Amino acid sequence: MDPIIAALARAAGLDKALDQFPDDVTAAAEQALNHANIVRVPTDPAAEPWPPMHTPTGLLRQR
Predict the structure, then answer these.
(1) Domain for residue 47, yes or no?
(2) What is the pTM for the complete model shown?
(3) Which of 25, 33, 34, 41 has the most CB atoms within 10 Å of its CB?
(4) What is the pLDDT of residues 9-26, one digit of tens each?
């Protein structure tokens, strides 16, 4: 196993998964690395990747 993948898995708290299912951890890490270029990082730090969450006004009771 790649020592970097093992170190990242242990840092993420995946010690048990790494011990019991090393092939699965490796496969998941490789899949994540292969898809890393698909994820778009926002250029504006204040930008939200989805619309802001608001409570519907019709469901609130008036006091």
Answers:
(1) no
(2) 0.59
(3) 25
(4) 999 999 999 999 999 999
